[in-house]
Amino acid sequence: MEAVTGDRRNIWRGPAMIATMLSGLALAACQSGPAGEISSIDTAQGSSGNISSLSSVIARNPQDPEAYNVRGSAYGRGGKYREALKDFDTAIQLRPDFYQAYANRALIQRSLGDQNAALADYSKALQINSNYDTAYIGRGNLYRKAGRVQEAFNDFQRAIQLDTTDPRAYHNRGLIYQLQGQHAYAIEDFSKAISLAPDAAEPYNGRGLSYLAMKDEDNAFADFNMAIKLDGNIAESWANQALIYERRGDKAKAARSYAQAARLDPNYKPATEGLARTRG
């Protein structure tokens, strides 16, 4: 389970360049080791039918922490954060060393806006299991959001050293390299994230921005176009594409792409300002 929403941070690399810094890929699943009946239940959906099935399992096994962890994950997927929180609390009460439940609860705390509680839960998970890559990635995201860049980098680096297959570790480390102007390293990390999650749009946006910073406009344009192909509902992708059109002097196409970005996010200033520049 990953949080429903991700954090997006926009920075500018000069008056004409949009740099979209996307912090979260919703690509990781709640990791636990369901046993017995639980393993046959699809926890990827937070539907009422699935919740009902999981509740039946808990009724038959009220002392099974795995059951509460799995139902909490389903609640989280369905946006029922308070119910999820209660289930993770119960799972931890039943098994105090249940590090996966701590990490899952941290996601819910983050979604509820309690960053300190989320940070404490990630750290507790890592205290129990210092090789748990998911917790390093989750805590790294919290550190990066708080501006604690070096600590965030260290956590992403540790997850990568543990041979994680979670693309968020590479994507988020790439964002830090990008922020520091180390675009060659950023491109390597975004490319690795793409290899692990080829259907995710965000790494293409990230890599395209680093290509653009290195004056490789053709590869940047290809990446922005691919980001749109994979997910046409991200305003930044359209604004990034529009920027290339604008740099190439095609104001009509630029205006259309900026307009699409503005429709998707009317408060996204690079889109509205770009549209104002090119519409006339």
TrEMBL record:
<dbReference type="Pfam" id="PF07719">
    <property type="entry name" value="TPR_2"/>
</dbReference>
<keyword id="KW-0732">Signal</keyword>
<dbReference type="Pfam" id="PF00515">
    <property type="entry name" value="TPR_1"/>
</dbReference>
<feature type="repeat" description="TPR">
    <location>
        <begin position="167"/>
        <end position="200"/>
    </location>
</feature>
<dbReference type="Pfam" id="PF13414">
    <property type="entry name" value="TPR_11"/>
</dbReference>
<dbReference type="GO" id="GO:0016740">
    <property type="term" value="F:transferase activity"/>
</dbReference>
<dbReference type="InterPro" id="IPR050498">
    <property type="entry name" value="Ycf3"/>
</dbReference>
<dbReference type="InterPro" id="IPR019734">
    <property type="entry name" value="TPR_rpt"/>
</dbReference>
<keyword id="KW-0677">Repeat</keyword>
<dbReference type="Pfam" id="PF13181">
    <property type="entry name" value="TPR_8"/>
</dbReference>
<feature type="repeat" description="TPR">
    <location>
        <begin position="65"/>
        <end position="98"/>
    </location>
</feature>
<dbReference type="InterPro" id="IPR011990">
    <property type="entry name" value="TPR-like_helical_dom_sf"/>
</dbReference>
<dbReference type="GO" id="GO:0046813">
    <property type="term" value="P:receptor-mediated virion attachment to host cell"/>
</dbReference>
<feature type="signal peptide">
    <location>
        <begin position="1"/>
        <end position="28"/>
    </location>
</feature>
<dbReference type="InterPro" id="IPR013105">
    <property type="entry name" value="TPR_2"/>
</dbReference>
<feature type="repeat" description="TPR">
    <location>
        <begin position="99"/>
        <end position="132"/>
    </location>
</feature>
<keyword id="KW-0802">TPR repeat</keyword>
<feature type="repeat" description="TPR">
    <location>
        <begin position="235"/>
        <end position="268"/>
    </location>
</feature>
<feature type="repeat" description="TPR">
    <location>
        <begin position="201"/>
        <end position="234"/>
    </location>
</feature>
<dbReference type="GO" id="GO:0009279">
    <property type="term" value="C:cell outer membrane"/>
</dbReference>
<keyword id="KW-0808">Transferase</keyword>
<protein>
    <submittedName>
        <fullName>GlcNAc transferase</fullName>
    </submittedName>
</protein>
<feature type="repeat" description="TPR">
    <location>
        <begin position="133"/>
        <end position="166"/>
    </location>
</feature>
